């Protein structure tokens, strides 16, 4: 069932062991059998695994005259996915066979990702950006469900201005006239912002709550029921 090294049989030169039950030949067979001139070990139920990979590499390093029947009679018998595959065509990555390398490959990127996320959350306020992207996506999804006629009416404005009562004089006397000079169509809405929330959150909240509400528009444009 095995193809061991020569051991005390240091003068072994010819070995015929085909049609047996060898599944995992020793990887150092050719190193211990320095005087082997002919090996006939084909037609065995080879188990194609990481251990067999080293034996295949050893066969590739010796003369083709030494290993009789190679590669025709040397085929995988297990697992089923490789059954009938010639040993010379069996390949498995180093990552699959090296447990330490596999662990390092998985752990290191995980640690790097964890550190990167931590840095983004601490210094760049990543959760806030993700929340804004989520709200933007929801707004786009709602916009797709709006009928074309209403969507066209929505697009007649260039800007939505929501302001507090404290700033109403500046908006009406300074901001609006300057925007109108640039032919910018605007939609006005007077609303006090909620204290403690960011400017962007307040603006998004105003737009969502003001959907299909009546607005006071710039005096140079026709009024619309919503914008």
TrEMBL record:
GO terms for cellular component: Toll-like receptor 2-Toll-like receptor 6 protein complex. The keyword Transmembrane applies. One of its GO terms (molecular function) is signaling receptor activity. It is found in: Membrane. It is a single-pass membrane protein; Single-pass type I membrane protein. Residues 155-227 form the TIR domain. The chain crosses the membrane at residues 100-124. It holds the Pfam family LRRCT. Keywords: Immunity, Inflammatory response, Innate immunity, Leucine-rich repeat, Membrane, Receptor, Signal, Transmembrane, Transmembrane helix. GO terms for biological process: cellular response to diacyl bacterial lipopeptide; inflammatory response; innate immune response; toll-like receptor signaling pathway. Coiled coil: none annotated. It comes from the Eukaryota. Belongs to the Toll-like receptor family. This is Toll-like receptor.
